[in-house]
Design goal:
Blueprint: H1 8-31, H2 38-45, H3 49-55, H4 59-80, H5 87-103, H6 108-120, H7 122-147, H8 156-177, H9 184-194
Helix pairs in contact: 1-2, 1-6, 4-5, 4-7, 5-8, 5-9, 6-7, 7-8, 8-9
């Protein structure tokens, strides 16, 4: 299946959103999430508050928006895994994208600091868990197709995907709490290895 390139307008929108998100991380880390206002963000980006709201409805959406994109990408990645590959193996490979994202040298200390802000801020952490739940739903739809367990009354695909995402959260939390003492991917392997279905 051939994918069509995104229209220029959508590519531009995504680029501006990515730039705003990166700028926001710097400001949130320097000043604190609660202390940074929409006015601060708009001014730092060289745009009006009104223009800012064309890209993000709130500060929270600015922080959480990346998780929507990640969920869609994970579902696409799962669909692209080799036919017949065990679902747990496929999920580990797909969740590896998240580990690679966080381990990437390009992400740097500011992104890790932002993830700690998300973990420690009650509202952001609740929103993060909600977004992870939405990501899980996107992956679950694809997991049902891959396993053939299409009946919504069959809990097996939901259980396996839920377990994999629990491992992802456990690895993420440990990775942040231990100041990245071990690679994220190793922690994910340990977590998933602890409950690997037979």
């Amino acid at each position: 299946m051939q994918s069509h390139p995104l229209p220029v307008r959508e590519r531009t929108r995504r680029a501006v959103r990515a730039e705003l998100a990166q700028l926001a991380v710097q400001l949130f880390v320097e000043r604190g999430y609660d202390e940074t206002t929409i006015d601060d963000l708009a001014t730092a980006a060289g745009m009006s508050k009104r223009t800012f709201f064309r890209y993000f409805a709130s500060k929270e959406e600015l922080v959480m928006g990346k998780y929507e994109v990640v969920g869609e990408q994970l579902a696409e990645d799962l669909a692209a895994r080799p036919p017949g590959e065990p679902i747990w193996v496929s999920l580990r490979q797909v969740l590896g994208r998240v580990a690679e994202y966080f381990e990437s040298e390009a992400r740097g200390a500011a992104t890790i600091a932002m993830e700690k802000i998300v973990r420690d801020h009650p509202t952001l952490n609740a929103s993060y868990l909600d977004r992870v739940s939405r990501m899980q739903e996107l992956v679950l739809d694809q997991a049902r197709i891959r396993t053939g367990w299409l009946d919504p009354a069959d809990p097996r695909a939901a259980a396996i995907v839920g377990a994999a995402f629990s491992c992802l959260i456990a690895a993420w939390t440990t990775w942040l709490a231990t100041n990245q003492a071990l690679p994220f991917g190793d922690l994910l392997d340990q977590a998933m290895g602890a409950i690997q279905p037979t």
